[in-house]
């Protein structure tokens, strides 16, 4: 993005009489890996002023100074340099991502302010994801395992492994996998689903990273719980049967007062 302003002589339609300060960037979008240097290019030309004021600002929730009054400010002090109007930031992190504005003020020019915008995107390789795997679950239960890497840029995609074998969902598998959200979902687990589970996050920037495998055990309901469930089901069935009998008797008039 650039701001090029010219002063036109109304009596000379063939072209400009003189130029004001002109600011541009040869690379308005910059992508670099984390912990490398980011070069934010800014080129300018002035009409008369040989010593213009150069400032860099970063836009976020507000606007903060990066370079002001010939000095770097805040977190940029000691890890940035200027060559002309071009800004170089050393060892960038994700916090440095954002929109930067190069402003050149030439007080002797007809129009004395020009600016150019450069967008910096810091790419971050995968980090070890957080994995949620319960230690045990009952047979027949629904189950969803979760995996998340909140730090990688661009956002990571995910793959689940059971006993070091990648899980690929098909129409025949008892589970589904969401590679973007990192979810592994079972509608009804069985004993064969027991095993060691881990998740791997990956993106285009660096090598994949995996969490430590965690053991999932699928267990049968305890005998006393099974008896309790069966007893409750039988009791409910008995109540339902009695209700049906009462309704039938009332409809047929089998319950008459003497």
Automatic annotation (TrEMBL):
One of its GO terms (cellular component) is protein complex involved in cell adhesion. One of its GO terms (biological process) is leukocyte cell-cell adhesion. Keywords: Membrane, Transmembrane, Transmembrane helix. Pfam families: Ig_3 (PF13927), V-set (PF07686). InterPro entries: Ig-like_dom, Ig-like_dom_sf, Ig-like_fold, Ig_sub, Ig_sub2, Ig_V-set, JAM2. Signal peptide: none annotated. The keyword Ribonucleoprotein does not apply. Residues 16-119, 126-217 form the Ig-like domain. The chain crosses the membrane at residues 225-249. This is Junctional adhesion molecule 2b.
């Amino acid at each position: 993005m650039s701001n090029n302003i010219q002063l036109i002589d109304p009596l000379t339609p063939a072209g400009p009489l003189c130029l004001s300060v002109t600011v541009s960037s040869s690379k308005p979008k910059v992508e670099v890996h984390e912990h490398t240097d980011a070069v934010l290019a800014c080129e300018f030309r002035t009409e008369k002023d040989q010593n213009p004021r150069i400032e860099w600002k970063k836009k976020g929730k507000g606007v903060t100074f990066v370079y002001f009054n010939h000095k770097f400010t805040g977190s940029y002090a000691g890890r940035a340099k200027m060559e002309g109007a071009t800004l170089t930031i050393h060892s960038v992190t994700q916090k440095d991502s954002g929109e930067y504005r190069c402003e050149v003020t030439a007080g002797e020019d007809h129009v004395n302010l020009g600016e150019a915008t450069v967008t910096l995107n810091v790419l971050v390789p995968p980090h070890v994801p957080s994995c949620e795997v319960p230690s045990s679950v009952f047979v027949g239960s629904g189950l969803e395992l979760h995996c998340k890497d909140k730090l990688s840029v661009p956002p990571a995609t995910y793959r689940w492994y059971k006993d070091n074998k990648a899980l690929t969902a098909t129409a025949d598998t008892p589970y589904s996998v969401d590679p973007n959200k990192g979810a592994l979902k079972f509608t009804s687990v069985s004993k064969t689903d027991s095993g060691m589970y881990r998740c791997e996050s990956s993106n285009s920037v660096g090598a994949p990273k995996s969490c430590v495998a965690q053991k999932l055990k699928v267990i049968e309901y305890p005998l006393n719980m099974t008896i309790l469930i069966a007893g409750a089901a039988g009791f409910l069935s008995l109540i339902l049967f009695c209700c049906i009998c009462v309704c039938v008797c009332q409809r047929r008039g089998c319950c008459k007062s003497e």
